[in-house]
Each structure stands twice: as C-alpha cells, then as structure tokens.
Amino acid sequence: MLMDYILQSKQEATTSVSYVPRESSKAAESFRQAASFALQPDGTPDLCQNSQNGEEDLARKPEPDKRVARSLERMVSGVANYVSVARDTGKLLRQSSSQLLESREQLEGEADAGILDLYSEKKTPPAPPVRSHSKESLALSMSKTVAMTEALLEPRSDAAKPAKEQWAAAGAEQRTGGRTAGGGGLEEPERKGRKSQEDEKVLKVADAKKTFEKPKPSEGKAATPPASTARKDTMRRVVRQSKFRHVFGQAVKNDQCYDDIRVSRVTWDSSFCAVNPRFVAIIVDASGGGAFLVLPLHKTGRIDKSYPTVCGHTGPVLDIDWCPHNDQVIASGSEDCTVMVWQIPENGLTLSLTEPVVVLEGHSKRVGIVAWHPTARNVLLSAGCDNAIIIWNVGTGEALINLDDMHVDMIYNVSWNRNGSLICTASKDKKVRVIDPRKQEIVAEKEKTHEGARPMRAIFLADGNIFTTGFSRMSERQLALWNPKNMEEPIALHEMDTSNGVLLPFYDPDTNIIYLCGKGDSSIRYFEITDESPYVHYLNTFSSKEPQRGMGFMPKRGLDVNKCEIARFFKLHERKCEPIIMTVPRKSDLFQDDLYPDTAGPEAALEAEEWFEGKNADPLLISLKHGYIPGKNRDLKVVKKNILDNKPAANKKSDLINAPKKAADASNTQNEAKLDEILKELKSIKDTITNQDERISKLEQQMAKIAD
Question: Where are stretches of biased composition, namely Basic and acidic residues (predicted)?
C-alpha cells in the first residue's frame, strides 16, 4: 500500500498539481474554481498560470511558493531513501542468516544449535542468555550490530545514489504495468557486485570469535601460567607480609582522659610529656617559675587547679625524662640553666614538691635536653643552648664528662644507642654526629643530612642504624635511614608532606616500629624498619580532629598484653591529655609471643662507676607473659663528696678512671655517719613500740573489767 501511494504521488507530481495559494486573499474562490497549474519547462509546476482560461490574469496571479515545492520534493526523496533502506536491510538479514548457517561448523559445536535454527527460520536475532554470556553469543551480537549500523548509515553515502536511480526506473516500469523480477529493482550482476562489497564490510562471526579466544601455547614451548597464578604472584610481590600491617589506633573515652590541664606554651620543640608504668608527667604553665604535673595513671578525669606540682625551678621547664631504672625518679631541665632530679612519693604527690634530690649545675645557658643512660644506673645526660653536652653521675652530683667543643651551633636532640656506648646528635648546623662520650671523639659525621633550615631529629635504632627526620630545601618533611659506618648516602630517604611541624620520632626496639608525631599535627604515622627494600615501610596513620601540643610514649612494660596493645601514647591538647592505644587485632586471648618478645626491664645492667670505667652491657630483659608488676623502688640517695676534695671535671681518660675511686674513698666517712643515724632512729622506734604495747595491754584489761 505504501509503495503504491508513493508511486502515485510522484506520477501526479510530474503531470499537474492542484494548488491553493496561502497568501492569496481570494483563496476560497480559487479553491472553488479548482484551478490547475501546468508544468514549466524545467519540470516544476507553474503556480502563476491559470490553465482554465489559458491566459495570464495579472490581477489574480499569486506569488510563487517555493518552500512548498521544496518540502514536497524532500518528502518524496526521503520516502525513496526509506524504501531503499528497507530493501537493503532485508537483503542484509538474508545474508546474515546464510553466514550463520556457514559459521555453525566454525563454532565447533559450542553454540546452541536450537538458537541458530530459530534465527535462520525467523531471520531475527536470538535472545541472549539470561545469566551467562558465552563468547559465541558475544560474537553474534557484535556481527549483527556492525551489519545493522553499516546498513543504516549506507543511504547517506555515495552508494545510495544508484539505489535511488534504480528505484526511479522501477517506478516507471510500475506505471507502465511492469515490475522487475525479485521485487528489488536490481539486475542479477549488480546484486552480486553489491553482495561482494557488503561481504567485505560485514564482520564475520569467526573473526569476532577469535577476539574472545585465549591463545593456545605452541608445541615445544612451556605453557604460560594461568592468570590467577600470575595475579597471586603479583600480589605477593606488592603486598608485604607483616604482622603489624593492621595496627590501628584508638583514643580512649572522655572519662579516661586527664582534663583541665594547662599545658605549657613555651616555644620549644620537646615532647612536654613523659610516661612510665606508674605516673604521667606533663609540663604546665606556672607563674613565677617552671612546674610540671605528676599524676598517677589511674587518676583520670578533671584535675583540680590546686593539685600539687613539682615547682622547684625558677624558669620554665623545657624537658623532663623518667629514670628507666626507678619509676619514682624524674629529671627536668629548665631555662634557669639547671638540671634537677626529683623523687616522687610512691602514691603520688599530696603537697607541692619544691626540694629536689639533687641540683646539677654546669650549663651557662638554658637546658633543653635531658636523657637517662639506658643500662647504667644514675647516669644522666644533659644538653643546653651553650652547645655543650654534660654527662652526670647523679649518685654523687658530679659532672664527669663535658663535651663542650663538639658542636658549633644549637643542639636539637641527643639519643643513646642500645647499650649506651655511643650517642648521636642533631644540631642547627645540619649535621648529624655519632660521638663516643668516654673517648670524647666523633666516630661519624654527616653534613647536610637534611638541607632544610627547620629542626632535625636523630635517634639510634636497635641494629645500630640511625633514623633522622627533617626538612628538604623546599620545606618538605623528610625521613631517612643511615648507616653510621658509611654516611655518604642514606639507606632510604622519603618525603612525606609540606607541613611545618617538627616530627618527633618514638621508637619501639622490640617491634622495630617508629611512630612519627608532628607538633601541631592531628595524626600519628607509623613505619616498620626492616632489612628489605625500601627498608622503611609505611604501615598506617592514626588521625584525630585536634592538633597535638606534645606527646608521651609508654615503655613496653607498661602496656596491657591481654589486649594485644603494642604502644600507648599520651596526646597533649591545649587543656587535656588524651591516651591513645595502638593495638594489633588478634582473635586469640592467649599471650602473643611474636608481639611481645623479651623487653628491657627496670634493673640496671651496670653501675655508674662501671660505665665510666669503660664497661658496656646490653639491657637486662624481662618477659611480659604474665604481665609486668611494678616492684618497690629503692630511694635515690645522693652522697656528695667533701667540698675541699672537689676538683673541676677532668676531660682526660685517666682522670675519668680515677674519679670513681676518689668518690668511693670520700664516701666512706659519710656512710659511717649515716649508719649511726639510722641505728639511733631504729632504737627510738623500738622504744616507741614497747611503750605502745604496754598502753594497749592496759586498755585491754580495762575493757575486760567493764565487760564483766
């Protein structure tokens, strides 16, 4: 029907067309007269000539409407294109059906024969599988998509012009009563030529199938491993095996924090906090001098403003450090150029403490660093802004080693090695030095460890290497690992970010994990140090909302082994101290031997005199399997030498060896006098007990009489 209508419309367009002008004021009258217009010589209807009268009437001649003619021609040509597309699409479908029948053998029986038969009979594409898509179905879909796309785009190309001419010829034959065989209007040679041309354009099913097939290994060559195996090998190379990969941090609840604490505002890059298994010490603001709080760990909650403090310094306190061999002894350095050692009562402070056990005077400028020896008893190191390092024997109150010519600029930090035989320092001149304090010589030195001008930090690791933090020339924070035996190039160097806070490193020698806490940051990054490249492995980051003013690090013996706790920090806010617990998730409740190897205990491996004589010893280790129970610490006793026998601190090795002997001789008389005082005190106590026993017996007799 559509074909007949289109042919009839075109035939009428070539003879005469009835037309009603739109702009004529006499349109109705013209329509009633059924005016017909003859064709012009170029084949278009003459819209201005009245065929009924056979002559021009200038009064009734309308303006020619060319838009109507153009629209009519475009409609006719569009319908011709549609018929050509429909005819070509049917031919493509028949060709695809024949190709599907030929490709059934190429698919090697993998395709569903029922679906192909259905497709060949109905000449419609089969429905895709519901749950799975095989490679054959994908190949069929691809071939049909390409064929339909090219068929739809073909009428717009140059190949559509012959089709239009053939359609015109077919229309002429139809008007004369004749139709071409096959209904397509194309002769047999032309049909074969177009078929061969379309065969080159249509994507064959076999070619599409090859794109989905896996390459087969050739004979004589080893087969490539499966993709799953290769992926596992890649994952093994990318993901490093470590039991600390899933360490996570968690802050305690608010009721377990220490609130309402006025943390010090001194501009000094120290941690402002020190922790041991019994107490937490925090440097606070104090009017008229320097002070720090000492709180038992269990005293959480709001701290009263009138809580007693340690306030013997006349200037702000810059650094504090707990003695590793006595949990009740703490040292402090201050802007008043002194170092003080304090004895804290076993149950904490009940009154403010103003009298230290000993005052160590020897620096000419403020003291910003104090550090106890890791294995020798009563050996304390201090460093000040006078660029001098002094090592003290706290038991006698003497400065036995004075390193005042090693540094030419301010010292940022000092760190002991594992057995206390060496120290490493970082200073403002961008140098890291490894020093033997008893020989008073520099063992190793590195210039421009970090090229930035901001403060650096350097600490010893358990294997003897040195870990440093600093800044690059572009103010990017860096961390580096160095070998003291060859400090020309770092073992590893990593850049972190562009923050300006100084990175404070805290090291756990048992697990080889380093925690980096930047002052002013709100996060703690932790890394694992191994012997495998890149040597410094990033683990994770603990982030919080509030920035940190300082940080305290709990020794390993103060952790809860039942909760797999491997580290505990005490983060200082502006008005609060917040504990943060680092945990390794484990399902078992048993003691984890791999997380808790034997750690350094509270017993000293050496006495101060032995270390000054040249002996070295590693820390005495204890097991945490049954937990750590703090024992009773003996009091710190300072026996000062006779003032008349005092001599300036010597720097020669012979004087260092003879100094402990002289101190022992001078202390004999003092010990005898102290022994007499103790005996007298014991006698008075026994007398008091005897009197009280008599009094108790009399009271018991009176009670017996009253009861009778």
Answer: 57-68, 155-164, 188-219
Distance CA 433, CA 442 (A): 7
Beta-strand ranges (E) seen in 616-660 are 621-622
Beta strands of 353-465 (E only): which ranges?
A: 358-361, 367-372, 379-384, 389-393, 398-403, 411-416, 423-427, 431-436, 441-447, 457-460
At 443, the amino acid letter reads V
Helix, strand or coil for residue 480? strand
Over residues 125-169, the pLDDT tens digits come to 555 444 445 556 666 666 666 566 555 555 444 444 444 455 455
- Candidates 125, 120, 81; CA nearest to 102 is 120
Burial 361-375 (b: 16+ CB within 10 A, else e): ebbeebbbbbbbbbb
Q: Cα(380)–Cα(333) distance, rounded to whole angstroms?
A: 11
Cβ–Cβ < 8 Å for 433, 444: yes
What are the b/e assignments for 127-136, b being 16+ CB within 10 Å?
Answer: eeeeeeeebb
Q: Which of 206, 212, 202 is nearest to 133 (CA)?
A: 212
Contact present, 440 and 651 (Cβ < 8 Å): yes
Q: Measured between alpha carbons, how far is 395 from 620 in angstroms, rounded to an integer? A: 21
Q: 113-122 vs 66-103: helix axis angle to the nearest 10?
A: 150
Q: Which residues of 338-355 are buried (b: 16+ CB within 10 A; e: fewer)?
A: bbbbbbbeeebbeeebee
326 contacts 636 by C-beta, under 8 angstroms: yes
- SS3 state at 521: coil
Q: Compute φ and ψ for 324, nearest 5 degrees.
A: -70, -15
Q: CA 371 → CA 320, 321, 323, 378, 427, distances in Å?
A: 8, 6, 9, 11, 16
Give the model confidence (pLDDT) of 589-607 as tens digits. Answer: 788 888 999 999 999 999 9
Take residue 260 and report the two structure tokens written for it.
């309402």
The span from the first CA to the last CA of the chain, in angstroms, equals 138
What is the phi-psi region of residue 54: left when phi exceeds 0, alpha when psi lies from -120 to 50, beta otherwise? left
Strands, sheet with 379-384, edge to edge from the N-terminal-most edge strand: 367-372, 379-384, 389-393, 398-403
